[in-house]
Design a protein that fits this description.
single chain; Rossmann fold; GMP Synthetase, Chain A, domain 3; 2 domains; three-stranded mixed sheet; globular
């Protein structure tokens, strides 16, 4: 990456906000490739996902944290711990909110956390494609004094509106620094973890509301055939109840086939080759309250930046 000496900036930026406010969509759009899964259900993101944006101006390493919320079980506690710890570990915080003049309990909870950090905070009002442009000033006015914001930037992560301005603002807060990753790196996540998340995303999108929170995905096997251009992947969808297992499999296996075929398309785009995907479903009761099983499914409290 050719830049004038002394002008390359770099740093770590975290995205926080209530569940389902569009954090993963924003990150995917900035990076230009799907890494973080998205759905219209809360608690989609469970791990802190590290992705990388590199341009001639510099390099931004994004941490997409689980949404900050009041925990209901050990998995929830883990997710909140990860989200809150990143606030003091980064150079800049992006707080994403929806366009509204109503500041609810969830936002107030996050605001209290932000007031206790010395890290600069930029408010990002997302989903501006869903409101009239004239309304945006009202939303800015409603939020401007909630926290001592460095900047307020309205965007549409879904439509890609005003993201260039957001990038300019972010670079203003970063100092000269090294390139942490090669210019072509877009994530530090292992392929197996991304593939598992792709399967979980399709389950989230296709299943009933009460089931997805109790779903995890384990990759049992992933290897490339000797002749190349084909990867065999075996994965297990883990759920909490026998009744959930039946719903995930569906009538004559229709739901499991649907989840698998949708996930396979994403996998082939990511891996740039054909994928032979086999899915299984197992019941592990109350895995979300088991420290061992939470770690077994890849959720770790001790990850470092």
């Amino acid at each position: 990456m050719s830049t004038k000496k002394g002008t390359f900036k770099s740093g770590f930026v975290t995205l926080i906000g209530r569940p389902n406010v569009g954090k993963s969509t924003l990150m995917n759009h900035l990076i230009g490739q799907k890494i973080a899964i998205t759905s219209n259900k809360p608690q989609t993101t469970r791990n802190r996902i590290q992705t990388v944006y590199t341009s001639e101006e510099g390099q931004i390493v994004f941490l997409d944290t689980p949404g900050i919320h009041k925990a209901k079980n050990k998995l929830g506690e883990y997710m909140v711990t990860v989200a809150e710890r990143t606030l003091n570990e980064v150079d800049l915080i992006l707080w994403l909110v929806e366009p509204s003049t109503f500041i609810g309990a969830g936002e107030k909870h996050i605001a209290e956390k932000l007031k206790r950090t010395d890290t600069p905070v930029v408010l990002v009002i997302n989903k501006i494609d869903t409101v009239e442009k004239a309304e945006i000033l009202k939303f800015i006015d409603a939020y401007k004094d909630v926290v001592d914001f460095g900047d307020i930037v309205p965007v549409s992560a879904l439509k890609g509106e005003n993201l260039n301005e957001l990038l300019k603002v972010m670079f203003r807060y970063l100092e000269e620094g090294p390139m942490f990753y090669d210019a072509d790196t877009i994530t530090d996540q292992p392929e197996r973890q991304i593939v598992a998340e792709m399967i979980r995303e399709k389950a989230l999108r296709n299943l009933n509301d009460e089931i997805p929170h109790g779903v995890a995905v384990a990759i049992d096997e992933m290897h490339e055939r000797k002749q190349g251009n084909l990867i065999d992947i075996s994965a297990t969808i883990v759920c909490e109840k026998d009744s959930h297992k039946g719903i995930i499999i569906g009538k004559k296996g229709a739901m499991l086939k649907k989840i698998g075929s949708q996930a396979r398309i994403d996998m082939e785009n990511l891996l740039d080759c054909k994928v032979n995907l086999k899915l299984w479903v197992k019941v592990k009761k109350d895995w979300r309250d088991s420290d061992f099983l939470i770690k077994n499914f890849g959720y770790r409290k001790d990850e470092e930046l």
